[in-house]
Design a protein that fits this description.
The protein contains 8 helices and 6 strands, in the order E-H-E-H-E-H-H-E-H-H-E-E-H-H. The protein has about 190 residues and is an alpha/beta fold. Strand 1, helix 1 and strand 2 form a beta-alpha-beta unit. The termini are far apart.
């Protein structure tokens, strides 16, 4: 059975932290691929700053140079709020030959008891937790833990830097920076 990692998020914008997490988990868990799934509207956050098309384009640019990374637009196509349970039900139905590993940061590990129908979700997916500054990687739920180099980057921090016209080189892939500038994203 092919093992697939799932990394969900708004990716507003995608950054090197996302790519590092995906690659470290892929190699540690011996995953065939990692699918990046941008949300349309996350259930636990405010709406994205940029439209879905721009986020998909930026994510495609960010992942293009890694043959093990794929962008999957299942949640964008559904639109509205996206719950992991709904997404995983569809993915399991479409891909019964694949075993899924849902990658989450330690902040989301702490939040797992509040996820929509978490007990049902555990039958559909294996969770992989990665460390994040300020959070403990502890849960009553079965979580595989992968140590990754600590890199404290957030999309909200990047949006703030971009609005202030500060440099994001070495934090965001060059192709994504070019796209952001060309499309005037994150400007005041």
């Amino acid at each position: 059975m092919k093992r697939i990692g799932i990394l969900g998020g708004t990716f507003d914008p995608p950054h090197l932290g996302h790519l590092l997490i995906a690659e470290e988990v892929r190699t540690a868990m011996e995953l065939a691929e990692v699918w990046f799934i941008p949300t349309y509207t996350p259930p636990h956050k405010a709406a994205s700053m940029t439209n879905a098309e721009d986020r998909i384009n930026m994510l495609q640019l960010a992942t293009d140079n890694n043959p093990f990374f794929k962008v999957n637009t299942i949640e964008i196509e559904r639109s509205g709020k996206s719950y992991t349970l709904d997404t995983m039900r569809i993915l399991k139905q479409k891909h019964p030959d694949k075993e899924f590993y849902f990658i989450i940061g330690a902040d989301m590990v702490e939040y797992l008891p509040h996820w929509n129908k978490i007990d049902e979700l555990l039958y559909l997916v294996n969770f992989v937790g990665v460390k994040r500054a300020g959070y403990k990687l502890h849960s009553e739920y079965p979580i595989s833990e992968v140590d990754i180099p600590m890199i404290d980057i957030s999309s909200s921090m990047l949006r703030k830097r971009l609005r202030s016209e500060k440099d994001v080189r070495y934090i965001v892939p060059e192709a994504v920076i070019s796209y952001i500038k060309e499309h005037h994203l994150y400007e005041d």
